[in-house]
Amino acid sequence: MQRLGGKVAVITGAARGQGRSHAVHLADEGADIIALDICDDIATNGYPLATRADLDETAKLVEKSGRRVITAVVDVRERISLKKAIDQAVTELGGLHVVVANAGICPLGNQVPSRGFIDAFDVDFIGVVNAVHASFEHLGPGASVIVTGSIAGLVPQKDLATGGGPQGPGGAGYGLAKKMLCEYTKGLALTLAPEQIRINTVHPTNVNTGMLHNLPMYRTFRPDLAEPSREDAELVFPILQAMPVPWIEPEDVSHMVVYLASDESRYVTGQQFFIDAGAGLKLGL
C-alpha cells in the first residue's frame, strides 16, 4: 500500500536537485504533484538555475510513477502569482495535503553585490513564507508542511552582515534566512497544532546538486585557490561532516520528506531534522 495514496503535494524548486527528487519520491508513494519553479536565472546568483526543460523532465519522471502532475513557472518571491498557480492546480487535482517549500539559492562570494543579500533572503525566507501562506486555505487536518533549511545556514557567520568573509552579501542573506526559518516553523507549528496541521524543517548538509557544484561554492571551500576545480573542492568537502563523506544525495533528504508527508508522522510537528552525516554534531548545533 502506498504511503501517500490520495494526497496532493505542491513542491517549489521542483525542476531539479532536491525538489525533483522530492517530487519523484512523493509520486512513487502515491501522491499527485504540483511542481513549481522559476525556470530562470537570478542575476546575483553566480550559477545557473533550472530551466523549463528541467521542469518538463521532472513532470515526465512523476508521470512514470503513474501519478498526475501539474507544472507552472512561477517565482516564489511573487505571492500573488504563486497563489494563482497553486489555486488553479488544486482546483484541477481536487485538494492539497502536503507543502514542500524547497526553492532556494545560495549566491556566495565577495564579488556578489549588496543586492545578493536581498535576493537570497527573499527566495530563501520570503519564498518559503509565500509558499506556505499561499497554500494555507487549502490545508486541513492531517496536512503536512515541510520546509528546506540548511546546516550551513545555521552556522554562526561572523561579519557576514557587512559582506565580510568569503560568503559575501549573498551568504549573509542565505544564513539569515535559514536561521529565521527555524523560529518561523516552530511558531507556526504551535499555531496550527490545534487544527492538526503539521510543519517541520529538514536541514541537509552538502547535497550533490547544482547548488554545491559551482565555482562560487568551490571558492568558498578553497579560498586558497583563485580558480578551484571540482576535484580541488572535493578534497575538503568532507570537512563539514562527521562521517567521512563529501555530501549526501538528494534522495537521502527525500526519504525524510516522504516520512514527514505521510500519516506515519501525524504527531510530529515543530521539529528540526538534520540529514547531515553528523555535520550538526560536529559544528555544535
Characterize the structure shown:
The protein has 285 residues and is α/β, with parallel strands linked by helices. It has 10 helices and 7 strands. The protein has a 7-stranded parallel β-sheet with strand order 3-2-1-4-5-6-7, sandwiched between helices. α1 (17-28) links the parallel β1 (8-12) and β2 (32-37). α1 (17-28) packs parallel to α2. The longest helix is centred in the middle third of the chain and has 25 residues, at 168-192. Residues 159-165 have low confidence and may be disordered.
Measured as a percent range, the helix fraction is: 40-55%
Rg, Cα atoms, Å: 18 Å
**Main structural class:** alpha/beta
Largest sheet at a glance?
7 strands, parallel
Report strand %.
Answer: 5-15%
- Secondary-structure element sequence? EHEHEHEHEHHEHHHEH
**How many DSSP E strands?**
7
Question: Would you identify the regions where 5 or more consecutive residues have pLDDT less than 50?
Answer: 159-165
Q: Mean of residue pLDDT?
A: 94
Shape: globular
Instruction: Please work out how many helical segments DSSP would assign.
Output: 10
Query: Which strand order spans the largest sheet, edge to edge or round the barrel?
Result: 3-2-1-4-5-6-7
Name the assembly state.
Answer: single chain
CA-CA gap between termini: 37 Å
List the main descriptive attributes of the protein structure presented here.
285 residues, seven-stranded parallel sheet, alpha/beta, globular
In short:
The chain has 285 residues and is an alpha/beta fold. The chain has 10 helices and 7 strands. Helix 4 runs parallel beside helix 6 (168-192).
